[in-house]
Amino acid sequence: MKFDIKKILGLSLLTLVLLIQPIYAQSLPINAYFFYGDGCPHCAQERQFLFHELKSEYPNLEIYEYEIYNNRTNTLLLQQVSDKLGVGVDGVPFLVISDQHFIGYANGMTSAAIKNKIAECSLEKCPDSVASVVGVETKEVMPTMTNKTEGTELRKETTEIQSPLSDNVLAEQNKKMVKLPLLGEINAASFSLPVLTIAMGALDGFNPCAMWTLLFLISLLLGMKNRKRMWALGTVFIVTSASVYFLFMAAWLNLILFLGFVVWVRILIGVLALLGGGYSIKEFLFNKDSGCKVTGDEKRQKTFDKMKLAVQQNSLWLAIGGIIILAFAVNLVELICSAGLPAVYTQVLALNEMARWQYYLYILIYIFFFMLDDLFIFFIAMITLEMTGITTKYAKISRLVGGLIMLAIGLMLIFKPGWLMFG
Amino acid sequence: MKVLKFGAVWCPGCLVMKPRWKEIETENSWLQTEYHDFDQDKEIVGKYNITNVLPVFIFLDKNDNEFLRLDGEIEKDKLIEIINQNKEK
């Protein structure tokens, strides 16, 4: 048998080419629906991951994107999608693959979960109920380039990225670690929001708006002989005041979370913060009065009369009921006076994605520091049986610091909202 | 010399001034002072035209003529200085 060397070489080359040539296999098409907002840094990160990393790895992936800050139609579409999935959507980025949704984006963790889902849906058909809501046609099968070797690699990679603390995440976390004297090493990202909460709560607390009712109540309580009754009525007043503030802030937060998708709401609150900050600084610079402003004589007198009536009730329960109603009404009215700081704070809170209970926990921390001066005055009075006032010097300094914080937050809300996302 | 002090129970600045005056009065037993509540003593509040800010301190001479009026939180040292300067009035 005569071997033709040219034929052998040709056949070998053809075999090699065929071996290297990828085998066309069936890979299922996947639709992803990506809701994002312009200027939202987490959205930008997720977008980068979806279009540059994931799309090149999975050509069978079709990504539909919807900008919601500047597009009312897309905002409504997001509402429809969330209704369809039966989930509450508090912010963006919001991604839907099959019937699974991903709220927020943390590089390394969310990306791993997204990749897992894509890998799963590439092999097995996943339901796509969102397609009908957004008006996208679903495809049955899409040919894509793959081979056995790539398939093995894909599974291997999937296993690797399931680790919640991949190298990327650790590197990201290390970037945010800051060494501070006394406190040691802290994570700047997770530290910033609690610090801001404490600072803003305490600054808001120096606002003397609702303090006058507490002081008047204490003056009435100090005239009593029954110390248990004094403690009970004072505590009820403080707890009710805190509850009114909590309800107001929670309602405001939910409103912002609902409207937060619309960019002008954020800008409007930013403008409010600039105005409030400017006013506080103007007051610090030009208002040299260190005393208490005398306003609303008639209103104050009426409140005093009602409070006297409530405190003098023979029945403790009637007195408590009266104090609750009064505390509720007074604090509700006085909220107008101090709405600036809590409104701006809740906007900052809404920019940070977290579980609902965490939002409320932050509000509680804010209120605790807001009430700290009231608690101080109340406890001192109950223990020493003498009234104490907090010097207005602190209120003056808090005006300056609060004003500067408000200005900074206002500018960030308008121009760099990403800087207020601490997570 | 006599000092009329105007304040209110709901005014933190007035509460801050109370112990300061108490110390001054203890150290200067000759000094005559009178405290008037803004909400209760309407007549004298009206007479001295106390309207915008509390606390208010009105310094009267031997003939009950006002020669100085201060308002807001005042440092104890400053008050002592004023009292010593006007002791003979």
Name the descriptors.
heterodimer, A: 423 residues, two-stranded antiparallel sheet, 65% helix, 10% strand, elongated, B: 89 residues, alpha+beta, 5 strands
Q: Given the structure, what is the number of helices of chain A?
A: 16
Largest sheet of chain A: 4 strands, mixed
Radius of gyration of chain B: 12 Å
Q: How are the strands ordered across the major sheet of chain B?
A: 2-1-4-5
> Which bin fits the share of residues in helices of chain A?
55-70%
Please describe what this structure looks like.
The complex is a heterodimer of chains A (about 425) and B (about 90). Helices cover about 65% and strands about 10% of the residues of chain A. By secondary structure, chain A is α+β, with helices and mostly antiparallel strands. In chain A, the strands form three sheets. A four-stranded mixed β-sheet of chain A has the order 3-2-4-5, with helices on both faces. In chain A, β2 (about 30-35), α2 (about 40-55) and β3 (about 60-65) form a beta-alpha-beta unit. The longest helix of chain A is centred in the middle third of the chain and has 33 residues, at about 225-260. Chain A starts with a helix and ends in an 8-residue tail after the last helix. Chain B is of the alpha+beta class. Chain B contains three helices and five strands. The N and C termini of chain B lie close together (about 5 Å). The mean pLDDT of chain B is about 90. The chains are: A alpha+beta (about 425), B alpha+beta (about 90). The interface between A and B is medium-sized, with 23 and 22 residues. β9 (about 290-295) of chain A pairs antiparallel with β3 (about 55) of chain B.
